[in-house]
Amino acid sequence: MARLVLNDLKVSYDGKVNILEDYNLEIEDGKLVSILGPSGCGKTTTLKAVAGFLQSTGGEILIGDEDYSKVPVNKRNFGIVFQSYALFPNMTVFENVSYGLKLRKIPKDEIEKKVLDILETVELIALKDRKPENLSGGQRQRVALARALVISPKLLLLDEPLSNLDAKLRIEMRSQIKRMQQKFNITTILITHDQEECFSISDKVAIMNDGKIEQYDTPENIYSNPKSIFVADFVGFKNLLDVTRISPGVYRLSNGKNIEAEDVENAKKIAIRPQNIAVGQSSDSFIEGTIKVRTYLGEDYQYEVDTDLGEIVVSTSKAIALNTGDIIKLNFPKDGICVLAS
Amino acid sequence: MKKSKVLTIFVCLVFFYLLFPLFITVVASFNSKDILTYPIDGFSLKWYKSAFSSSYISGFAISFQVGVVATIISLCFGVPVAYGLAKYKSKFTRAIKNVFFSPVLIPGIVLSYSLFLGWVFIAKEFDTRLPKLLVLMLAHIIVLFPYTIRVIGGAFEKFDFTIEDAAESLGATKKDFILHILLPSITPAIISASVLSFITSFNDIPISIFLYGRGSTPLPIIMMQDVEKYGDPSVAAVSVVLLFMTIGITYLIEKTLGLNNYGR
Amino acid sequence: MNKEKLVIFLPSLCLIVVLVFIPLLMLAQKSLSVDGTISFANYLELFGDSTFKKALKNTFSISFFVVFATLLIGLPTAYFISRTQGRLKNVLLLLTLFPLLTNAVVRSISWMIILGYDGILSRLMSDLGLIDEPISLMYSKLAVIIGSTYIFLPLMIVSLIGVMDNISQEIEDASISLGASRLQTFFNVIIPNSMAGIIVGVVLVFTATLTAYTTPNILGGTRTVVLATLVQQYGTTLGRWELVSSISIFLFALTVVVITLINKSASLVGGRNEEK
Ligand SMILES: Nc1ncnc2c1ncn2[C@@H]1O[C@H](COP(=O)(O)OP(=O)(O)OP(=O)(O)O)[C@@H](O)[C@H]1O
Ligand SMILES: [Mg+2]
């Protein structure tokens, strides 16, 4: 059983400042979890600590019941795919992939069988005698993945594995990663700063900020129910409005109007996505505003609207084209509002 | 990432090996007796007095002159060549590049002897004894020339030659371009090449072996002869003076250019 | 051939022809002439000369040992320096390069003190009970090897650091994560990917030792003669000028052959990508 638990993990580069502190994360066996967050929040640090390149200064890294935090990197048997792929330039594709097995003193014919098997899965058999310098980005990526998987790792760790690929390859590769991960049923941590990438293939997502996990949940929940202002902002709630709770389920906005939404004690802000704001001419409109800027986003238009609540971003489908200077009426439907306490 | 203890200890020993001999030289130069030993029998500064004696001083003057002249002239020849090699890339330039780097292949003492034969030839055929100082300078120019091309060439390789066309389109003459754009943009390389060349010339021994004459003996040759003859601590004292001069120069390089520009 | 190229290259070509090619040709001609006629007599005499044979043997064995020793010491040291960061790295580089900036006499005299009669090494050995009488290691082959290793080690280290700096930490991490120890990683990943620098270092150190004059002269003297010191001894000391030219040509040819051989075999093994 390879259920991973990070328990009160502490990590520091210099022994003074803890980059990660009281870090907790639990990953079920065979699940793929993404860690998402802005640059410098500690994603790579987390991965390095789990991998063992950084010695954690406190806490536990449990796989099943066994604590791995003191096990040396080369004894951990985790598969790691590096951002630069880190293929050995002096070895062919075949040698790269077989390296880990050779170190394990596995008989030669068995190595050959395993390596050819996995190269077949990642469709690289034809290139097995090439050197990494003669491979394309996507091919290198697959070699790196095969090399990490062939050792039957307890855990697969991927640090921004797709960031060096172009947009089309990225989509292809991410489904390949997902396929492989499911085929081998391997517990996986994927580091990324691409929201779409991580939502599309993850079982769960951990949103990190400043060395802490802000929210750990399924992609669907994070998308529609962010638990903090940071997460809401990070996952595209463009409109964040200050509120005070005046009675259960009723909040007062900065322009003095009241709004109804799900009840949250200590609510500080409400968040709403541009596409959840209803644009219309009906008389019972909530607020009014003037369109300042219009941007075309392919499927819809997005408008920056000046209102007495400040600037509000709304979007409409292509069918309804409004112009700069138009005065429009906006409604905030109750189920599109997300109430945030922190 | 932590390094292994064994490796750290090993590297400490290596640096001990690199630096301990220099330390011994410094200590030995203060010996009160006239032998080179460590530890010393007593403390004395008298070898520093002889270090500043006339023969060493004149050797220093010779080496200094040769070094400065050879550095400047090899720059004069080397800068245009480096420019040409970087600008024109053809079979032809690759071929003559080998010609220009050929002195590197010739052992210093062999080059020295062949130039000595040239000197003898001119003395016989034209009845002219070329001054030894001049021949020394010529020999050192040859030794420095490839280094100069390499260091300056490194700078020209990074130079964007469309700038030359741009300057021309703005009305600059060839001379304007060279003086106002080309040379200023490679000044750091010229400085490193000069320092490297001077130090190389100042320290080179084999190239001078057959070429020095009375009154034109370079300092390192004088030092070597003294070591061969008796080896009292005055050579150590001269060495210490040179060491400290080198430290000064290294410090200046580090402050002005940074180490990475040097020795690459 | 346009005018600009002519102005740029011609003066330097003349310089090289006049000061390198013509003197070398004169040297070759002299080595091949006896009493005005062309003959291989000088070379025949040379190859029969026992001192020359000894010098040749010394030169090669010393060069091999020095290359071996500088590699052995240089590889871990260069690796350590390339994996050090910040100020300390600069300091270590500076300390490595510093001895290169002084002349070979300065760097050799301390070895006279260390290796000489009743010197530091001799006393250390008798303290350890290895010898009963004070000894001198001066003028031995060992002395020349130790001194030359000392002098050429920085060359090797600098050549190696150049390539090792370009081996990314991630590649090392990858090897370790796949189960290799640090030592295995050093041999499987670092060394194979440092091949270009190793070859440069080997060529530099081998040819430098092959043609070195000062250190063998000071530490080997007349007892351990190498080709470069033989040129000088047969010339200025013994007056056997007829041999000096042929030794010189031989030494020059040897250098060229060695450099070509190392580079050729390196490109055969495939360690070095054509880059020049
Ligand atoms: N080697 C190091 N020594 C000291 N501090 C470091 C080191 N590497 C990273 N840090 C610090 O640790 C924090 C987290 O860095 P980390 O590399 O984990 O960020 P990240 O989330 O991976 O960012 P990115 O998306 O840019 O890769 C940052 O504040 C960074 O400055
Ligand atoms: Mg990162």
UniProtKB/TrEMBL annotation, chain A:
Q: Which SMART domains match?
A: AAA
Keyword line: ATP-binding, Nucleotide-binding, Transport
Tell me yes or no: is ATP-binding among this UniProt entry's keywords: yes
UniProt xrefs under Gene3D superfamilies:
P-loop containing nucleotide triphosphate hydrolases (3.40.50.300)
Q: Name one GO molecular function term.
A: ATP hydrolysis activity
Q: Which InterPro entries would you find in this protein's record? A: AAA+_ATPase (IPR003593), ABC_SmlMolc_Importer (IPR050093), ABC_transporter-like_ATP-bd (IPR003439), ABC_transporter-like_CS (IPR017871), Mo/tungstate-bd_C_term_dom (IPR008995), P-loop_NTPase (IPR027417), Transp-assoc_OB_typ2 (IPR013611)
| Gene Ontology cellular-component annotations | ATP-binding cassette (ABC) transporter complex
Please indicate if the UniProt record lists ATP-binding as a keyword: yes
Annotated ABC transporter domain residues:
4-235
Q: What is this protein called?
A: Putative spermidine/putrescine transport system ATP-binding protein
Taxonomic source organism:
Reinekea marinisedimentorum
From TrEMBL, chain B:
Q: Name one GO biological process term.
A: transmembrane transport
CDD domains membership: TM_PBP2
Q: Which UniProt keywords apply?
A: Cell inner membrane, Cell membrane, Membrane, Transmembrane, Transmembrane helix, Transport
Look up and give the membrane topology term: Multi-pass membrane protein
Q: Which residues cross the membrane?
A: 56-86, 98-122, 134-156, 177-199, 235-253
Instruction: Quote the cellular component terms of the Gene Ontology held in the record.
Output: plasma membrane
Q: Where is the ABC transmembrane type-1 domain?
A: 60-253
Keyword set includes Transmembrane helix: yes
Where in or outside the cell it occurs: the entry states: Cell inner membrane; Cell membrane
Q: What domain of life?
A: Bacteria
Q: Which family is this sequence assigned to?
A: Belongs to the binding-protein-dependent transport system permease family.
Protein name as catalogued: Putative spermidine/putrescine transport system permease protein
UniProtKB/TrEMBL annotation, chain C:
* Keyword Nucleus applies: no
Q: Where in the cell is it found?
A: Cell membrane
Provide a GO CC annotation, any one.
plasma membrane
Q: Which SUPFAM superfamilies match?
A: MetI-like
Task: Show the CDD domains listed in the entry.
Answer: TM_PBP2 (cd06261)
Where do the ABC transmembrane type-1 domain residues begin and end?
56-262
Its membrane topology is listed as: Multi-pass membrane protein
Which key words are in the record? Cell membrane, Membrane, Transmembrane, Transmembrane helix, Transport
UniProt GO BP: transmembrane transport
What transmembrane ranges does the database entry give?
A: 60-81, 93-117, 137-164, 185-213, 243-262
Q: What is its main location?
A: membrane
A Pfam family of the record is BPD_transp_1
Top-level lineage group: Bacteria
Similarity comment text for this entry: Belongs to the binding-protein-dependent transport system permease family. CysTW subfamily.
Protein known as: Putative spermidine/putrescine transport system permease protein
Give the originating organism.
Reinekea marinisedimentorum
